[in-house]
Amino acid sequence: MESLLAQWFKFGSPRLGDRKGVVGVAGVDLIRAVAAGDQDALRELYRLHSRELFVFILRRLGDRQLAEETLQDVMLAVWRGAKSFRADASVRTWLYSIAHRRVSSAMRKLPERVTAYEPDLMESHADGPADKLEISDLEAAIVAALSELPERQRVVIELIYLHGLTGPEAARVLGVPVGTVKSRQNRALRALRPLLEEFDDVYL
Amino acid sequence: MSTYNRSSEGDHQQLSARQEALLRRSLRSSVSAMPTPPPDLPVSLLRAARRENELGVVGATISLIRAQWPVVTRERLVLGMVAATVLVFCAAGGLMSGFDLLLLAGTLPVAAGLFTLLLSGPLSDPAHALVSATRTPFGALVFARTTVALTILVGLSFAGSLALALVGETLLTTLVAAWLGPTVIIAALATVLAQFWRPAVTVVLALAAWAGLVLLAALELNGVVSPGVSLQAVFRPGAGPLLAQLTLAVALTLAAWSLATRPGLTGARS
Asked: Angle at CA B255, nearest 5°, toward B253 and B260?
């Protein structure tokens, strides 16, 4: 697992769910530069956020090529809409909002409902020690249980626990009331709770 | 504790710190094995962005409409539109005064709505393939295509009205007033709604409303019903109502344009 975490930290973009880093003034300044027509700022924005947005998109679309195209759509929308960005939301929330709308649009093109993109966890963990493998087993079980959830609930869980957004931020991204996010989160956690409790003693 | 969590006390499914850590870690582990996006933005996208910047929104819209012109006119659908419009005017020429206006007002807006639908979805396959492949927001494409279709339809209808006015007794202004407002309004309304819902839904909604109005007007003309306010005014508008119709049409068109060029809004794909 350590190697995986180390690998995770190697990404050029901030770690998913990291509330610090580029979020804040630097992000707003970048958006302003994009609004002024600075393509380098757009590329910098892409470098900083492409990883987390790509994960968000790919997990929902389940198709790598479509996810890459959708990510490009998002960046083009950012380019077009940077002037309309209001600093009452964080840059990340704004980016996720655009990504959510693009994903929703792209999903309608898919021939059938997709499930969350799930890489082969066992394969990726296979070279670790035996106890690490045990942990990866339960993590895989949790992720599998998550993928069984309705898409609406799964997105809320991922936005909050993977991407590190707050409930109100997730509501803003999804364009639904905070109460709706809360109830979806509740329902999802209720479904996941038995599994989390079962493995609670094993973990750590 | 945040307001979000505080307000949810009682009904909120609280996780212990360990459970939450486990959930976060599970999700991150699953993500770490995922592929990464391309390291940089494609040159084509940057080029397109630069071009848009140079053109501005209005320039980009005009450019898009011009680009959609050959796409729309290549469609067999346009031949159908021409044939249908000619037929409608031929039929209107053989009808009594009043009914001719009703026919024009009843069919031409429907044609505008149908073209909006057919140019926006899989029924028109080549165009839909293009829509699916393009990076241009769907709403913008619907707007551009409807503009092209409407330009053709209005041009044809104006020519038809001119011909009817020359051979018949009804004035050109009366004929044009009967169909112009409703046609543009229906097309613009369908385009506005298409920014939010599937074109099939929006067009059906817009046309259903219009069909209801036309049906009532036809029943009124036949003396079957007598609504409190005469619907004939809708189809035989004076200067005031016509101005109001055109103002509404312009407002809807501006709304459609604004929505179509709004960032991040892609509209629904059919």
From this structure: 95
Give me the interface pTM, i.e. the ipTM. Answer: 0.71
Q: Best interface-test mutation with A: which of B32, B50, B52 has the largest number of A CBs within 10 A?
A: B32
Show me where the domains of chain B are located.
56-260
Q: What is the pTM of this model?
A: 0.54
Interface of A with B in 39-58 (CB under 8 A): 39, 42-43, 46-47, 50-51, 53-55, 58
* Residue A98 to residues A37, A42, B262, Cα–Cα distance (Å): 19, 15, 11
Closest Cα of chain A to B65: distance in Å? 18
Residues 6+ apart with CB under 8 A from B86: B156, B160
Q: How many CB atoms lie within 10 A of CB B29?
A: 23
Task: Check CB contact under 8 Å for A139 and B30.
Answer: yes
Amino acid identity, position B166? L
Where b means 16+ CB within 10 Å and e means fewer, A156-188 reads bbbbbbbbbbbbbbbbbbbeeebeebbbbbbbb
For chain A, residues classed under CATH 1.10.1740.10 are: 15-107
CA distance A10 to chain B (A): 10
Token reading at A168: 């109100």
What string of pLDDT tens digits covers the 270 residues of chain B?
A: 455 554 444 445 677 788 888 888 888 888 777 788 888 888 877 877 777 666 666 776 777 777 777 777 766 777 888 888 888 888 887 776 667 777 887 888 888 777 777 766 554 444 444 445 455 666 677 777 778 888 888 888 889 888 888 887 778 888 888 888 888 887 788 777 777 776 677 777 777 877 787 788 778 777 777 767 666 666 666 777 778 877 887 888 788 777 766 654 333 333
A182 CA: distance to closest CA in chain B (Å): 8
Looking at beta carbons, which residues of chain A come within 8 Å of B51?
none
Judged by CB atoms closer than 8 Å, whether chains meet at A204 and B18 is answered as yes
Residue range(s) of every CATH 1.10.10.10 domain in chain A: 121-198
The CATH class of A15-107 is mainly alpha
Among the CATH numbers 3.30.420.40, 3.40.190.10, 3.40.50.970, 1.10.10.10, which is that of A121-198?
1.10.10.10
